Amino acid sequence: MIDLVLTLSRLLLGLAAVFLLGYGWFALLVPRPAAFLRLEKLALSFGIGATVLTLWMLILSWLGLKLSLPVMLVPPLAVTGAGLLMKKIGGGGLGSQTPASAPKPSPPTPYGLWDWVFLGLLAVLFLYASLRAMVYPMWAWDAIATWGCKAKVFYQSLGLDLTCIDAHNYYPNLLPLLLSYLYFCLGRVNDHLAQGLFPLWGTLLLALLQAFLKRCGLSRTRALGVTTFFALNGTVFPVHLYIAYADLPLAYFALAAVGLLYLWFTDRAPRGSLALAACFFAGLAWCKYEGPPLAGTVLLAAVLSLAWLRPPDLKARFLGLGIPLLGLAAGYLPWRIFAALEHLQIGADHIQNLYPQQFLQGSVYLLMALANPFYFGVLWPALILALVFCGRSLWLSPRLFLALFVGGNLLAIVVAYGVAPTSLAEFPGYVRATLDRLLLHITPVAALLIGEGVKELRGGQGALGKM
Fold first, then answer.
1. What is the DSSP code (8-state) at residue 420?
2. Of all helices (H) and strands (E), which one includes residue 203?
3. CB–CB of 258/298 below 8 Å?
4. Rounded-to-10 torsion of CA 89, 94, 97, 98
């Protein structure tokens, strides 16, 4: 019993160090951290901390230094602390100057019946997911053969040793490095406890979604309702709460990057939000192979939206997009340089040729998945309804940015299937193995757009209409 308590304490302290490191960077980048609610600080800090910590672990391996807890934690925490001290002495901030400063959302009202109903449903979901993650061993192909295998190799070799890894050794390594960091905290490989990372990541994703919905103008009850609707629709999101795949973290980074940029578009973002978005663009690139293209669609949607909407400060807005672009480079280039120096073969397994029959088949499979309640419930039909409720404002407001991101990625999925080098017999299995995960990457942003549609229902009747 004492051993279990000590082991759990080591895990919690290790996770707390990630939060602490992330909050230090958060406080450095944001001129006024008080402009963010505590829930937002918590949800954003973990992603920043995980990105900074794992990139530092990559640098340590690059320098030929062996990984250990003191080497992994002391230097970045010391540098962050020195930066905070300099900021306090100088009275300034390192955060980017966004075009507008948004006030902190109004103080919360007492929780009502529907608030407790939604919170209760989410609590049941995460209790189940946490028990499922920590009781069962690591399972599923990518969890064992890719992310889990790498994490164990990195822990045993005390660095990024890829000499014995042939399967996708060119993939970015945020997740396996973070898992190996947890093994260092625990003092041994323990997949049961390390998998508790995924319910935590799902919790932070939902906290971030609710915070963004509130900043967009929804009441707490409506924001909780949309968040619960997203979490309980279909099987894909609940399953990824207890499966050791990189797709849930990638969805979290995508939501943060898009959400912060959308708040900046709508002039609801506190100062420094663009710098925070840059951290999550870095996380996107460093999290998974699909991350850089996903980040590219965010920037493309932003550029097209600015060109269409033509705000008065158009030039400043275009220049502002250079900040997240720098973040994307910071997350993309270190691993690419490391891979080149280590002579790792960079895969091109998704770029071969155009196969027209797969393009058509992929389109059919995608439409079937969007309508399949087993995948995401009625989330996608609800999105179509929300777009109808938005009406002309969809084309005349920053909502266009969200719509272009979601629509552009649906098109990108079809294009990816059109160039995937698979045989005619293998293609249906390839789609079944990947489509739900590719959709998961963008569904939190789809839920944010659904929230914009819910804002148009202020005249709704009944108990929910009074939120």
1. -
2. helix 197-215
3. yes
4. -120
In eight-state DSSP terms, residue 18 is H
Q: How far apart are CA 109 and CA 37, in angstroms?
A: 15
- How far is C-alpha 186 from the geometric centre of its chain's CA atoms? 25
Where in the chain are the domains? 2-83+113-343
Query: In Å, what is the CA distance from 351 to each residue of 92, 98, 347, 357, 416?
Result: 47, 37, 9, 16, 8
Task: Give the C-alpha separation, 54 to 446, whole Å.
Answer: 29
Residue 192 identity: H
Helix-then-strand count for the chain, H and E = 23, 0
**How many other CB atoms sit within 10 Å of the CB of residue 401?**
26
Q: Are 260 and 280 in contact (CB under 8 A)?
A: yes
pLDDT confidence of residue 344: 81
- Any alpha helices (H) in 321-423, and if so which ranges? 322-341, 356-371, 373-376, 379-390, 393-396, 399-419
Among the listed residues 443, 459, 7, 444, the one whose alpha carbon sits nearest the alpha carbon of residue 213: 444
CA distance 128 to 151: 25
Burial grade of 374 (CB within 10 A; 0-12, 13-18, 19 or more): exposed
CA proximity to 205, closest of 383, 21, 50, 27: 50
CB atoms within 10 A of CB 270: 25
Q: Provide the residue type at 177 as one letter.
A: L
Q: Are 223 and 119 in contact (CB under 8 A)?
A: no
Going 423 to 428 to 431 to 432, the CA torsion angle's sign is: negative
Ranges in the chain, pLDDT < 70: 91-108, 167, 346-353, 458-467
Angle, in degrees to the nearest 10, between helices 322-341 and 273-287: 30
CA 325 – CA 296 distance, rounded (Å): 9
**For position 92, what pLDDT does the model report?**
54
Quick one: how far is CA 442 from the chain centroid?
Answer: 9
Residue-level pLDDT at 13: 95
CA gap 441, 237 in Å, rounded: 10
User: How is residue 180 written in tokens?
Assistant: 């190996």
List helix spans (H) across 63-139.
69-90, 113-135
Is the Cα dihedral 195, 69, 246, 282 positive or negative? positive
Residues in CB range of 347: below 8 A, 6 or more apart:
168, 170, 289
Place of tokens 């502002």: 320
Locus of tokens 């970045």: 76
Half-sphere exposure of 452 toward its Cβ, with a 13 Å CA cutoff? 25
Tokens standing for 92? Answer: 């300034």
Residue 252's closest CA among 205, 196, 299? 205
